[in-house]
Every structure is written in C-alpha cells, then in structure tokens.
C-alpha cells in the first residue's frame, strides 16, 4: 500500500495559488500554482515579502493590510496580476486571517484563482452578442435615417442657390456639412451590418506595427511620447487583412497617446505567443495564438466604464465619435481573434489583441467584398 500524499503534494495539485504570510508580511509557505503565477520558485519565494514579488503599490497588498487590521476575511474579484515574462493574468483573491487562541493574529492566507480564461470567454460571448445587435441597429438606422438625410441635403443645396443674403447661404452650407457628418457616422456604423469579406495575405505583424507607430509619431499630440517596442522575433507572418489590422492598431495606439495627459509618457507595444488561455477553433481545440499588447502611462481604465468603451457612440474624448473601439473589436473578431480591455488601478491602460496564428478559413458565402 502506497503512503498517503503529503500536504505539500496535495496543495501543489490544487489549481488555485495558495500563499501563507507571517504577521510581518513575509511568505512562509507557497504552493506550486502560486509560484507559477508570481514567476518565482518556492526556494526563492520563501522569506520574501509579497511586495517584492507583486510591487509595492499592488492592490492585493491593500487587501492583506485590511485583513491584518480587522481580522476578517475578504474577497475581491478580477484583479490584474502582472507577470514580467508572460501575459498578464486576471485573478480572484480571497484573504483570510490565521488566528490562534485567544484571537491573536498569526498572519494571513491568500487564495489566488486564475479567472483569465473565464474573463476572456465572458468578454467573447458578450462581444458576439453586442456585434450582432450592432448590425441590427445599423441596418435600422440606415433605413430610417439615410433617405431623409438625402432629402434634407438636397433641400439645403437648393436653398443655398436661391437665398440672396450671406447669412442664409452660410446657414444652408452648415446644414449640408452637418448632414454629411451624420451620413459619415451612419456609414461607419454600417460596418457591423455589411459583413465584408477580409482580403487576406501573409502579413509581417511587426512591419505593420512599425508603420502604425510611424503614423502616430507624426501627429502633434505624440511629439513627446516615448514609443517602446517589445517584439517577439520568433513570430512568423500570419494570414490577415493588413488594411483592417492597421485600422485596429492605429486606433489603439492613438487611444493610448490621447490617454496620457499633457502628451508625455511611454506607449509600450509588445508582441508574443500566448502560452496560456489561447484562442479556440471551431472544434474547441486550442490554436497557436499571437498577443499584441498596447500599454500606456495614462490614468488607467476603471471598471465602471470598461464595458461601455466598446459601445458605439460612447466616448470619453472631446470630439470623439465613440466608434473606434467598437469597430476595432469588429475587425479583430472577423479575424477570429479577441480584443480585451484590462481594468487597471491607476497604473495606466492596457488593451490586448489576440489573433490566431493560423486562422480557420472563413465562410465564403458570408459578406460582400469590401470596396
């Protein structure tokens, strides 16, 4: 008869990360999943403070401090967990006090549950529903708005020819300009309804990103922005529509620049292969997945507005149309990928794009060829 497994073996087999801290905040025990989450080993992690592994401003440290003070357990959902050499994780965190009798604090126990895959799947399902509803809305708007706009524009042009005073002509010109602006917005929204076929060819992802960076650097608002490129040179060319991907990356880069108040800061664009939580094909099998990450040093993205950012016509920018991110999501989805906006805690914004390295062939019966 085999001897029963030790507690170390049992806790290492648990999928959740488990960490025990002494009252001073140093790690006195850690299981293997937690070591993987924090990119450390058990030998190097023991005796170190949690702040050394996570950073002194990480929100998990605030949870630990609160539990140490009030001796009450707490739970917090979907906290970003940065890892220096791998894609960031999203974790649910529970912190419980270790108490002796009489009630004397002996430290705390942390449980870290990886929610990255669940969060991505939840985003993907919600994204599919939103894109489908946007298509229905766009078709309805086009039907109800485009025809009357044509009549209004024609009437304004006639008015412009017939009025004799300057004020009347300027008013007619204003009507024509505003009608054209509204028509342009409707045309942008129609991208969700038309379902255009992608014109794919082999694309060098890094060359495409370099072109985007060159375009953004030429803008006046980006003169004092530092562009940092962290590319994985092992990524091969992938089949994609370069024009549509450039549209996506340009929007994300511009958003990152505009998020940095005063036009100063760094925009980091990184690429790499996803080792975990990869995209799945139609048969449910995981696909080789490329991750493109845009990180800025702005005020960050709050949970209150994260889900609204990809809603058409919702914008936090003065003069913005609110269509950029929703259109970007659409084109990433058409490539079989996923766009995720990560909630931050005042440490900058981060948007991740996942693309399949070998996308499955699209149904040729769907959509129309783009002009």
Question: Which properties best describe this structure?
Answer:
371 residues, Beta-Lactamase, Heat Shock Protein 90, 12 strands, elongated
Describe the 3D structure.
This protein has three domains: 7-114, PAS domain (Beta-Lactamase), CATH 3.30.450.20; 120-193, Helix Hairpins (Orthogonal Bundle); 197-356, 2-Layer Sandwich (Heat Shock Protein 90). The protein is α+β, with helices and mostly antiparallel strands. Helix content is 42%, strand content 23%. Helix 9 (205-217) crosses helix 10 (242-259) and helix 10 runs antiparallel to helix 12 (324-334). The protein has helices at 7-13, 32-37, 42-45, 50-54, 59-70, 116-162, 166-189, 191-194, 205-217, 242-259, 303-306, 324-334, and strands spanning 17-21, 27-30, 74-83, 86-100, 104-114, 201-203, 225-230, 238-240, 265-273, 289-295, 338-342, 350-356. A hairpin with a 7-residue loop joins strand 11 (338-342) and strand 12 (350-356). The protein is built from twelve helices and twelve strands. The strands form three sheets. It has a five-stranded antiparallel sheet, sandwiched between helices. The radius of gyration is 26 Å and the shape is elongated.
The CATH class designation of the largest domain is Alpha Beta
For the record, give the distance between the C-alpha atoms at the N and C termini, rounded to a whole number: 72 Å
Number of beta-strand segments: 12
CATH topology description of the largest domain: Heat Shock Protein 90
Which CATH architecture of the largest domain is right? 2-Layer Sandwich
């Amino acid at each position: 008869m085999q001897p029963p497994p030790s507690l170390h073996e049992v806790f290492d087999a648990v999928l959740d990360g488990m960490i025990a801290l002494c009252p001073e905040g140093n790690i006195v025990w850690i299981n293997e999943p937690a070591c993987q989450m924090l990119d450390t080993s058990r030998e190097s992690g023991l005796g170190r403070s949690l702040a050394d592994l996570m950073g002194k401003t990480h929100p998990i440290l605030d949870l630990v401090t609160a539990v140490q003070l009030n001796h009450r357990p707490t739970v917090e959902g979907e906290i970003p967990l940065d890892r220096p050499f791998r894609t960031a994780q999203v974790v649910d965190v529970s912190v419980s006090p270790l108490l002796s009798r009489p009630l004397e604090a002996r430290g705390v126990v942390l449980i870290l549950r990886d929610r990255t895959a669940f969060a991505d799947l939840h985003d993907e399902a919600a994204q599919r529903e939103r894109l489908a509803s946007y298509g229905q809305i766009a078709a309805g708007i086009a039907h109800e708005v485009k025809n009357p706009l044509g009549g209004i524009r024609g009437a304004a042009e006639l008015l412009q020819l017939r009025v004799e005073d300057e004020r009347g002509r300027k008013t007619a010109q204003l009507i024509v300009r505003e009608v054209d602006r509204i028509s342009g917005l409707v045309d942008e929204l129609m991208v969700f309804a038309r379902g255009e076929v992608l014109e794919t060819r082999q694309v060098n992802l890094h060359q495409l990103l370099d072109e985007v960076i060159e375009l953004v650097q030429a803008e006046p608002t980006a003169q004092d922005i530092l562009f940092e490129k962290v590319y994985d040179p092992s990524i091969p060319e992938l089949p994609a529509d370069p024009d549509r991907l450039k549209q996506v990356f340009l929007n994300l880069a511009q958003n990152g620049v505009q998020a940095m108040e005063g036009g100063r800061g760094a925009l980091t664009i990184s690429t790499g292969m996803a080792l975990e939580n990869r995209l799945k094909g139609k048969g449910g099998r995981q696909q080789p997945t490329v991750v493109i990450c845009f990180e800025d040093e702005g005020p960050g993205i709050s949970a209150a507005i994260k889900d609204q950012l990809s809603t058409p016509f919702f914008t936090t920018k003065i003069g913005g149309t609110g269509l950029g991110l929703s259109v970007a999501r659409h084109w990433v989805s058409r490539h079989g990928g996923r766009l995720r906006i990560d909630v931050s805690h005042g440490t900058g914004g981060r948007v991740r794009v996942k693309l399949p390295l070998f996308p499955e062939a699209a149904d040729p019966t769907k959509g129309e060829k783009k002009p």
